[in-house]
Specification:
The chain has 330 residues and is of the alpha/beta class. The protein is 27% helix and 25% strand. It is built from ten helices and 17 strands. The strands form four sheets. Strands 3, 4, 5, 6, 7, 16 and 17 form a seven-stranded mixed sheet that branches. Helix 3 packs across helix 4 and helix 6 packs parallel to helix 7. The longest helix is centred in the middle third of the chain and has 14 residues. The chain is globular.
């Protein structure tokens, strides 16, 4: 089968190419589209190896058709349209995943829209609902608000009844976009020019946020702690600015803060299966495309044919996207 491969197994964006690799067995699904994620860039650079047993081919989310079934699978039929989560292998024509890791594609979603859901929304759902324990009336802070996960986290926060959702981004265009989404941020802050903790405290009448989703790490640490309310929960999903911090433990103790790191790709199959099942029950039916009327919508920044995968990776590396970057298998 054809797949996006990496020359010498790691390297810069120029090392990506469309080549031939063995089709996975014993059963597989035919991929129509796949989503790009920052972990793909890290894996390409040799900084994020796939979990044990996963394909070395890039890609963790996809949409497509079931083309074969493994032994004992009875709930699916060949030809079913699905979207799914994988430990790797989505940058390809075919993929093998556990039957518990796919969800039936809603008829109203395109292949591109469906491919933008799994990693984005499951990561955000895990951070906001499971780790953050959002409640009706919670105040929320989401960093990297214009990223795929960020947009999903903002909308999920509103869906679960957040009172305020403050989002950060790097420029006015992204902040204006986030403010104007139907279920977008109620407050925004440019982290390059503003102290986002001051924006948070003003928005929450000096209370702070109950739920905080961070991708940044070191540069945001002190202001994150200042932004959190008593009994606040912070979930760390990435460390884009570094992992070393000069920490004052006092506020963590006296505000009874809970700070939790969270990953999705390295979780057990059982954990991922339960997460996917709960998300499908609680959220999936409420998601529509950008032109839909649902409380949660899919926002795709740009779609590339997979023959232009280098351009797609450059777009993500430039941090230019507002919403999801998708590649189509053509």
């Amino acid at each position: 089968m054809r797949a996006i491969l990496i020359k010498d197994d790691k390297g810069p964006v120029e090392s990506l190419y469309l080549g031939e690799t063995p089709t996975p067995t014993p059963s597989s699904g035919q991929i129509k589209a796949f989503g790009l994620n920052r972990l793909d860039i890290m894996q390409r650079e040799g900084k994020y190896p796939p979990p044990a047993g996963a394909s070395s081919v890039l890609g963790v989310e996809f949409s497509g058709l079931i083309s074969a079934l493994g032994a004992g699978v009875s709930e699916w039929q060949i030809g079913d349209e699905v979207l799914g989560l994988a430990g790797g292998g989505a940058y390809a024509e075919y993929i093998v995943v556990p039957s518990s890791h796919i969800i039936r594609k809603p008829d109203h979603l395109s292949w591109v829209e469906a491919a933008s859901i799994p990693e984005n929304f499951l990561t955000a759902f895990q951070a906001i609902v499971l780790s953050g324990e959002i409640k009706n009336g919670s105040d929320v802070l989401v960093h990297a608000g214009a990223s795929g996960v960020g947009v999903a986290a903002i909308q999920l926060s509103r869906f679960y009844g957040a009172r305020t959702v403050t989002a950060t981004a790097s420029n006015k265009e992204k902040l204006d976009w986030l403010s104007n989404l139907p279920s977008g941020a109620t407050n925004v802050a440019n982290y390059k020019t503003e102290d986002f903790s001051e924006v948070v405290l003003k928005a929450t009448n000096n209370k702070g946020v109950d739920v905080l989703v961070d991708f940044v790490g070191q540069s945001h640490w002190k202001r994150n702690i200042a932004s959190l309310a008593v009994d606040g929960h912070m979930t760390i999903l990435a460390l884009l600015s570094g992992s070393q911090v000069d920490a004052d433990l006092g506020p963590i103790l006296y505000k009874r803060l809970r700070i939790q790191g969270s990953t999705l790709r390295s979780r057990s199959v059982a954990y991922q299966s339960e997460l996917i099942s709960r998300f499908a029950r609680e959220v999936l039916e409420h998601i529509t495309g950008v032109q839909g009327a649902g409380p949660i919508r899919i926002y795709v920044h740009k779609v590339y044919p997979w023959t232009k995968i280098q351009e797609a990776h450059r777009e993500m590396e430039s941090n230019a996207n507002s919403g999801k970057i998708i590649a189509e298998v053509v």
